[in-house]
Design a protein that fits this description.
This protein is an alpha/beta fold. It has 11 helices and 9 strands.
Length: about 300
C-alpha cells in the first residue's frame, strides 16, 4: 500500500486494496488540497508522443501543489533528435528531477525506463500497452458517479485491440465484481491476453459487434476512437473507420442512469450532440485527472 519511491508502470502491479487506497487519497486531496504539499519537488515530463489531457493535467497537478515541471512535449527538441537512447536520456534527467512521467510510442518503454532510473517513473502511456494513471482517474470517475465499483455493467466500445486505456481499465476491473461487454469489429477485438486475465479472475464478459444491442443493458459505456496511428496499413484502418457513432439516437434505448466515458480525443465516434445530455461524463472524467495524479505524485514522493 505504501507507494513511496515506487514506479507506476502497469495496473497489473496494483491489487484491489492499493487501488482503493489511491482513490481514497485522491478524494481527500480533492476536498482539501495543500498548495505547498510538493513545494521544492520537480517532475520531469518526457512526452515522446502528442498529449493534451495527460501532460497538462500532470503539470497542473504538481503546480497546484507547489511543485515544478521540466521536460519536453516534442522529442525533436531534445537530444533524441541527435540519436540519444532512451536509457541515456533517463540517466541524465534523473539527476534533475524527483519523478519522471514518460509517454512513449513503444510498448515496454516505461518498464525499461524504470529499470534504468534511480527515481520513480510513471507510465503516461506506452504504445498500445498500458496507461495506468488514466485507469486510476477512470475508476475514480466511476466511483464518484455511481458510488461504487462493484455490481456494474460496463461496456467498452471501439478500438479494443490497440487501445491502451481499455487494456488498463479491463485489467484493473478484474478485481471487482462487474460484468463487461466488449463492442468492436472483429479486426479490433480485445486481445486474447486480456481476456485470459479476465477468465482467470472469473470476471463475466461477452463480445458484441452491435452497439444498439449492447447499450440498453449498460451502466457505463466507455468509448474509444479508432486509432489511425496504431494501424500497420491504411487499408486496415479504412475497413473500420467510422464503424461506430454514439449519438442521441443511439441512446434512445439506453436507461437513464447510463453514463458515457471517453479518454479523448474523439474523432467521429461520439457526436457532440451527446455533450449536453444526462449521459455525458467524459469532460468531468478529464477533470478528475488532476486530483488522481496529485494523489499519485504525493504518495510516490512520500508526502501523504
Amino acid at each position: 500500500m505504501d507507494l513511496e519511491g515506487k514506479d507506476v508502470i502497469s495496473m497489473r502491479d496494483f491489487d484491489k486494496e492499493t487501488i482503493l487506497h489511491v482513490l481514497n487519497k485522491a478524494r481527500e486531496i480533492e476536498s482539501c488540497p495543500d498548495p505547498a504539499l510538493l513545494m521544492g519537488k520537480i517532475m520531469a515530463a518526457l512526452f515522446y508522443e502528442p498529449s493534451t489531457r495527460t501532460r497538462l493535467s500532470f503539470e497542473a497537478a504538481i503546480k497546484r501543489l507547489g511543485g515544478g515541471v521540466i521536460g519536453f512535449s516534442d522529442p525533436d527538441t531534445s537530444s533524441t533528435a541527435k540519436g540519444e537512447s532512451l536509457a541515456d536520456s533517463i540517466r541524465i534527467v534523473e539527476g534533475y528531477a524527483d519523478v519522471i512521467v514518460l509517454r512513449h510510442p513503444l510498448e515496454g518503454a516505461s518498464r525499461l525506463a524504470a529499470d534504468v532510473a534511480i527515481i520513480p517513473v510513471i507510465n503516461a502511456g506506452d504504445g498500445a500497452n498500458q496507461h495506468p494513471t488514466q485507469t486510476f482517474l477512470d475508476l475514480y470517475t466511476i466511483q464518484k458517479e455511481k458510488g461504487r465499483l462493484e455490481d456494474l455493467r460496463i461496456g467498452f466500445l471501439g478500438d479494443l485491440k490497440y487501445g491502451r486505456t481499455v487494456h488498463s481499465l479491463a485489467t484493473a476491473l478484474k478485481h471487482f465484481a462487474v460484468e463487461l461487454c466488449f463492442i468492436s469489429p472483429p479486426l479490433l477485438r480485445m486481445p486474447e491476453y486480456v481476456l485470459h486475465e479476465l477468465d482467470e479472475a472469473k470476471i463475466s464478459y461477452r463480445e458484441e459487434t452491435s452497439l444498439e444491442d449492447a447499450v440498453r443493458h449498460l451502466d457505463i459505456l466507455y468509448c474509444t476512437r479508432i486509432q489511425k496511428e496504431r494501424f500497420g496499413s491504411a487499408i486496415d484502418h479504412e475497413k473500420v473507420r467510422g464503424v461506430y457513432r454514439v449519438s442521441k439516437q443511439t441512446l434512445v434505448s439506453a436507461h437513464e442512469e447510463l453514463r458515457i466515458m471517453h479518454p479523448l480525443p474523439r474523432v467521429d465516434e461520439l457526436d457532440p450532440g451527446v455533450d449536453e445530455s444526462k449521459h455525458a461524463l467524459y469532460f468531468e472524467q478529464a477533470r478528475n485527472g488532476i486530483p488522481v495524479r496529485q494523489a499519485l505524485l504525493a504518495m510516490i514522493m512520500g508526502k501523504i
